[in-house]
Amino acid sequence: MSNKEKLFRHGILDIKAYVPGKPIEDVQRELGLSEVIKLASNENPLGPSPKALAAARAALDSMNIYPDGACTELTKKLSGKLGLDPDWIVFANGEDNIITLISKTFLNEGEEMIMADPSFSSFAISARAVGAKVVSVPVRSDFKIDLKAVAAAIAEKTKLVFLCNPNNPTGTISTKSEVEEFLKAVPEHVIVVLDEAYKEFVDDPEYPDGLDYVRAGRNVIVSRTFSKVYGLAGLRVGYAIADPVFIGGMKRIREAFATNRVAQAAAVAALDDDEFVHKVHDMNSAGREYLYREFERLGLPYVKSQTNFILVDTKQDIKRVFQDLQREGVIIRPGHIWNLPTYARVSVGTLEENRKFVAALEKVLGL
Ligand SMILES: Cc1ncc(COP(=O)(O)O)c(C=O)c1O
User: Fold this and answer.
1) What percentage of the chain has pLDDT greater than the value 90?
2) Is 90 exceeded by the pLDDT of residue 20?
3) pLDDT digit string, tens, across residues 6-16
4) Phi-psi category of 151—alpha, beta or left, where left has phi over 0 and alpha has psi -120 to 50?
5) pTM higher than 0.90, yes or no?
6) Is the pLDDT of residue 70 over 90?
7) How far is it, in rounded angstroms, from Cα 223 to Cα 338?
8) Probe target for ligand 1 pocket from 225, 228, 235, 337, with the most ligand atoms within 8 Å of CB
């Protein structure tokens, strides 16, 4: 540890930084390629919601003015849509920022946070950053979150459970009956966070709406984002829904202007863009089916997904496959970061992108 590193808070050096998807520009520069597609960060291949884009453009003119820190209009609009009072909602700079805010609000140093492994790494980063201990519960052999094992891991020191539903990177869901059985086993001193970043892509009728548990007065916080189905990942809008007491605590320490002016305007407009949501959903479901068929043709096992990405076993060293795919102009997320050394997580793209990916995969795997 260097003298400068000694100045860090305890535990900072034990935290592994978030690994983002490799940017298109990096691959273009490194490999001298002009056409590169990125299927690595579960972004929206149809771009942003057109209504949101128009509203964002109009909002640019007033970027010299601070945003409304309370997100009054956006909160009102969302609360109307959800049928909840505005004080049940807090917005932040992306759902990632909500995750950080939850850990900062609820986790004391030395307390425990439970999450599945693999799941979304921001849960662990946010908890460790405030000195909490992360307890990881391996997913089952079918890649579903093992809710029985998560319940069994709850201890005296447990404060938070982050449940990603659907889970990233497995694409699986915990069903309504599974979640309800799990919640019955959760004691009063534990808060369950249901991360529903991918909820709009789910087709399974057994998928629960986390808001039912919030409304029922459970110690549940639901977190969601405008990054995925609305295509606003670059603008950063996420929110949490929970009992006003929980939300009130989070509001005490959130950044004063966390959700910027352009993002708020875009998100308000996006909430009116049901047409785009349906289009994105339908294209994604068709893309998933196309990729399943192609994986089956190539003899590659995959995990059935309820999201806009699929975990697929390439049966070869994924670090090499990842490099080789880049040379073909395709960026995927290599599974070794989740100790899945032959797996890729691939985002569902447009039909054209999916075809390009399959052709590249077939080539680099020598199939
Ligand atoms: C499960 C999950 N939660 C949260 C996020 C963060 O979303 P945002 O872009 O709103 O920060 C992501 C982003 O990929 C995610 O996969």
Assistant:
1) 98
2) no
3) 999 999 999 99
4) alpha
5) yes
6) yes
7) 23
8) 225
Q: Is 238 in the pocket of ligand 1 (CB under 6 A)?
A: yes
Read off the pLDDT band of 153 (50, 70, 90).
Answer: very high
With a 6 A CB cut-off, is 115 part of the ligand 1 pocket?
Answer: no
DSSP 150-179: HHHH--TTEEEEEEESS-TTT-----HHHH
| Ligand 1 pocket, residue 174 CB under 6 Å | no
The SS3 call for residue 193 is strand
C-alpha dist (Å) from residue 82 to 75, 193, 278, 279: 10, 18, 18, 21
Cβ of residue 96 lying under 6 Å from some atom of ligand 1: yes
For ligand 1, the distance from its centroid to the CA atom of residue 244, given in whole angstroms, is 23
- Tell me the CATH number of domain 5-47+275-364, given options 1.20.120.530, 3.40.47.10, 3.40.50.720, 3.90.1150.10: 3.90.1150.10
User: pLDDT-based confidence at 364, cuts 50/70/90?
Assistant: very high
CATH label, 50-270, candidates 3.40.50.720, 2.60.40.420, 3.40.640.10, 3.30.540.10: 3.40.640.10
Nearest ligand 1 atom, CA 96: 11
Ligand 1 pocket check for 43: Cβ under 6 Å: no
In short, whether 343's Cβ falls inside 6 Å of ligand 1 is no
